[in-house]
Amino acid sequence: MDLYEIEDTSEWLGTPTRLETVKHYASMLEEDIQDLKRQLQAAKDNVASLVAMNDQLSAELQKNRAWMANLEAETTEQLAEIQSLSMVRDQNDRLRRELEAARRQ
């Protein structure tokens, strides 16, 4: 191919120079960086929100665990009282049967 057959577009109107191309690319990179900074800040805000929610839920969990421990203690006390009353009732029933048996004799 001869040199005169290669089209030289460097002199065409509207063709950017190398410096213009680099400046344009730099401005695109700056826009991308700004967008990434906004996304990073949004992610940081989301993480902070999630940490606050986790702290709140952890506090509620601890409160509920203490409440359940109280309920368990109360239930254990009530069960012991029920067993005690059940033994008294059984003794009462046995004594009544013995008294009725003694009256019949």
UniProtKB/TrEMBL annotation:
Q: Which residues form a coiled coil?
A: 19-105
Say yes or no: keyword Coiled coil present.
Answer: yes
Answer whether the UniProt record assigns the keyword Coiled coil to this protein. Answer: yes
Recite the UniProt keywords alphabetically: Coiled coil
Know the name of this protein? Cell division protein ZapB
